[in-house]
Amino acid sequence: MIKLFSSIPRVVVVSFKLFAVLTVLFTVLFAQAKSEQSTKWHEADFVDAYCQGEIEYVLADRTRVDCLTSTHAIEYDWGKKWAESLGQALFYSAMTGKKAGIVLIVNPRTKDRYLKR
Length: 117
Fold this sequence. Notes:
The protein has helices at residues 10-38, 43-50, 82-96, 111-115, and strands at residues 54-58, 64-68, 72-78, 99-105. By secondary structure, the protein is an alpha+beta fold. It folds into 2 domains: 8-40; 43-115, no CATH class. The model has no long low-confidence stretch (mean pLDDT 81).
């Protein structure tokens, strides 16, 4: 039987095998991280899914209302930014003459922390 790596020093063979295993491992981990990243939700995804009016309506001062319906100026934001979204919604309401609306995007685990405020 012919040994494939008989003329190559053992250290080089082991190093090559280790390199090959690590390359495969990092490729798999990178692919998994990439797929998890692509399933991340963004605020715009919720606006696109639930807004029943004009999306990203631009006001005179160049600020943008996330969703402008016939009756409401609605701000979509993450739960932890509830105070900021309140101020924005009130400002958009004053600028458009429509009622202020807020859609807080929350995680089922932490929703109570933000919705009670």
